Amino acid sequence: MTQSLASVNAEQSVKVVSLGEKGSVFRKKLLSMGLTPGTRVSILRKAPLGGPLELSLRGFSLSLRQSEARGIRVELLN
């Protein structure tokens, strides 16, 4: 079952399934940073009150806004 990355709790691991609209500029930026379908991602922290998420993937950290994370579909690994 897939869900939005924004809905995943902190300290969980997920696998990226899809990245939103094909052809969008934001999707291309995510792909160029290594956030590709099939990638394992750990959610390190979620800021309170709808703040950004801190992710760990491929040996680096990445922060995304909640609005950006809503367009990313993932599967839980835990």
> How many structural domains?
1
Low-confidence stretches: none
Number of strands: 6
End-to-end distance: 13 Å
What is the makeup of the main sheet? Answer: 6 strands, antiparallel
Instruction: Indicate the CATH architecture.
Output: Roll
Describe the structure.
This protein is α+β, with helices and mostly antiparallel strands. It has one domain (2-76): SH3 type barrels. The protein is 15% helix and 38% strand. The protein has two helices and six strands. The chain has a six-stranded antiparallel beta sheet with strand order 1-6-2-3-4-5.
Structural features:
alpha+beta; 2 helices
Compact description:
This protein is an alpha+beta fold and 78 residues long. Helices cover 15% and strands 38% of the residues. The protein contains two helices and six strands.
Task: Furnish the topology, listing elements before pairings.
Layout (H helix, E strand, L loop, with lengths): L1 E3 L8 E6 L6 H8 L7 E7 L6 E5 L2 E5 L1 H4 L3 E4 L2
